[in-house]
TrEMBL record:
Keyword terms: Membrane, Transmembrane, Transmembrane helix
Protein name as it appears in the record: ParB/Sulfiredoxin domain-containing protein
Residue intervals passing through the bilayer: 84-107
Amino acid sequence: MGKYIRVKLSDLKSSRYLSWSQEQLDIKQDIIDNYSPRIKPITISSDYKICDGNHRYNILVNHYGGGHKIIVKKQRYTKRMYDYVGLILGLILLLPFILYQLVNLIVKKLAQLKKVL
């Protein structure tokens, strides 16, 4: 079996005063050539099977060969999801207060109308 290789975006970026190796240029060109904005990023299930983004996995396998193991870091939530969860929870917590104030306003207006009539 081949050795383990960890691939991170920071490994593909050139730091200041460093030049790109031919291997890094090949990986970068493969990813650029196969990029499509319509395709979502790699999605991995809870049992570490690739659900979506198999083309990126295949780029790495074609480049490094089938004898290597590609290690992928799985993240459960994105920042965008946290933003929506906070917004929804805030609305749920404010909804009873808003409804209470609305009912009180309607009752007061009805009482004023009864006094006028």
